[in-house]
Design brief:
This protein has 507 residues and is α+β, with helices and mostly antiparallel strands. 47% of the residues lie in helices and 16% in strands. α6 runs antiparallel to α7, α10 runs antiparallel to α11 and α11 packs antiparallel against α12.
Length: 507
């Protein structure tokens, strides 16, 4: 009788364990399917499927919470994403703990809280040094606060170990931010040979190539994006890719599109790889995208109670279409309503105002002082491809007065690269002292008629004094900043909503 009981117990336990194993397998399969939806940008479908998943234990709930955090981060609902990541903060699982720190690092990066982003990323690395994503976050944060050498060292070491798409994109972004778009293209072009349908890389390449004037090659890469979303039946993203192509060549779809036989197989392989490497392939928030393909860009800042943008005139003087996106990812269309070619300043009016709270105030404008520590915040390189600005620090070298040859400008050691033009320059009290204008080697101010070509020192940037804004552009403001010293990370966070990338499609 006892043996029968034992047999019965063993039988029941085997059924129970088999049931649990089947449930675990089913749960993991569902999560894999949901990750696939996230990778394909089918986010509404991913949310629907997540809500239907039956949870049997705390560990499964934590995995669900992390995926919700990933989705909300991707659609730029940062606060919502943070809520879900916080739910898993006190986990007993080391794996979940690492992913939580990575998620919170992403959140802080999106908020412009770079010190916090660095701290969370370092905690994730400490627990699991093999994770790629926190190291990328660390490098991105360091680039944005001007620690370029530390950033590229991290990225090169990562790329040597594993040629990951996110690492390749980060390295490309690094070179682009220093005006070396050619090297940025080389990095991504080499990567895409081994991963021909990587959507993120293809999108970046298309923007870089368009910026360089290679429209045909840019469209070729964007067409792969179009076909990928067509294959995955993501009509919204397919429509976006088509609109981009048409903005470059309105007649492109008038001719038959050649379909490669390898497309289906490559898309399937890409899908499988993306799901398998989900944690390493996560991206920062998907900010709003421009309605057109920009072939030039600059920087600017919000004024006039959120209704206007100040930038350089040379950024927009030949514009057919203009749009701006601030550091929090919000896009507005714009038009030129006032300008001075002599002082290379332009006032853009927006179709919809930003919050008046993030508008820079005229009483915060100060005259730069020789030897004063200053920073510029802007979108160097191909600004359309960057969701957040970078910060560069230097000093005021020389201030030109009314009696000088270059009245209303000043020289600075701040590195001003292509794309920085029109960006704000602040002192460390958060007061606007100037508008980034040109690097010495480009001498763009000569073309603007400011001066004649003469021998000038090297390694200098040039800026327009903030007081000149009042002379060429009329708008009214009140209020002023508190007279408080900021470090680079604090100033970055404070100014992030107020700084914009100016995307331009030229005539």
């Amino acid at each position: 009788m006892l043996s029968i009981k034992r047999i019965t117990i063993v039988f029941l336990l085997s059924i129970l364990f088999s049931f649990q194993a089947a449930n675990a397998a089913s749960f993991n399969e569902k999560l894999s399917n949901i990750r696939g939806e996230i990778n394909r940008d089918n986010l509404d479908e991913a949310i629907k499927k997540l809500k239907k998943v039956i949870i049997s234990n705390d560990s499964e709930q934590e995995k669900i919470d992390l995926l919700f955090g990933d989705i909300y981060l991707k659609i730029n609902q940062i606060n919502k994403a943070e809520e879900f990541y916080q739910k898993t903060f006190f986990t007993n699982s080391e794996e979940i703990e690492v992913l939580t720190f990575i998620g919170l690092a992403e959140v802080r990066l999106a908020q412009g809280k770079l010190n916090d982003a660095i701290n969370y990323a370092e905690q994730a690395i400490k627990i699991n040094p093999t994770k790629i994503r926190p190291q990328i976050i660390l490098a991105i944060a360091k680039t944005r606060i001007g620690e370029g050498e530390a950033s590229i060292k991290i990225l090169n070491e990562l790329y040597f170990k594993r040629k990951n798409a996110e690492v390749a994109l980060a390295i490309s972004g690094y070179y682009s931010s220093f005006g070396d778009s050619a090297q940025a293209i080389v990095i991504l072009d080499e990567f895409i040979k081994g991963d021909p349908n990587n959507i993120k890389v293809l999108n970046q390449l298309a923007s870089l190539l368009l910026f360089e004037g290679n429209k045909e090659k840019a469209i070729e890469y964007k067409l792969r994006v179009y076909k990928y979303y067509e294959f995955n039946k993501n009509r919204k993203k397919q429509k976006e890719a088509k609109a981009w192509i048409l903005s470059v060549n309105p007649k492109y779809f008038d001719k038959p599109i050649k379909v490669r036989k390898k497309d289906k197989k490559e898309n399937e392989e890409y899908e499988k790889e993306q799901i398998e490497n989900y944690e390493d392939n996560k991206i920062t928030p998907r900010y709003e995208k421009f309605e057109f393909a920009a072939n030039s860009s600059g920087s600017g800042f919000i004024v006039g109670k959120g209704r206007y943008i100040i930038t350089n005139y040379h950024v927009v003087h030949n514009a057919q279409r203009i749009a701006v996106r601030n550091g929090l990812g919000k896009i507005r269309n714009a038009k030129v309503v006032d300008f001075s070619s002599k002082f290379d300043l332009a006032l853009l009016e927006l179709d919809r105002s930003y919050s008046h709270k993030i508008s820079l105030k005229t009483k915060s404008f100060k005259i730069p002082k020789p030897g004063e520590d200053i920073i510029t915040i802007g979108f160097p390189g191909i600004g359309e491809t960057f969701v957040q600005p970078t910060i560069t620090q230097g000093i005021v070298s020389k201030v030109f007065t009314e009696d000088d040859r270059y009245p209303g400008t000043f020289m600075t050691t701040v590195a001003i690269n292509s794309g920085n033009s029109g960006g704000p320059i602040f002192n460390l009290e958060g007061n606007l002292v100037g508008v980034a204008y040109a690097a010495l080697d480009k001498l763009q101010w000569i073309k603007a008629g400011l001066t004649d070509e003469i021998a000038l020192p090297t390694d200098m940037g040039y800026a327009i004094q903030s007081k000149m804004i009042h002379k060429v552009i009329e708008y009214k403001q009140n209020n002023k900043f508190k007279n408080k010293k900021y470090n680079k990370a604090q100033l970055y966070e404070k100014m992030l909503p107020s700084v914009v990338v100016v995307a331009v499609q030229t005539k």
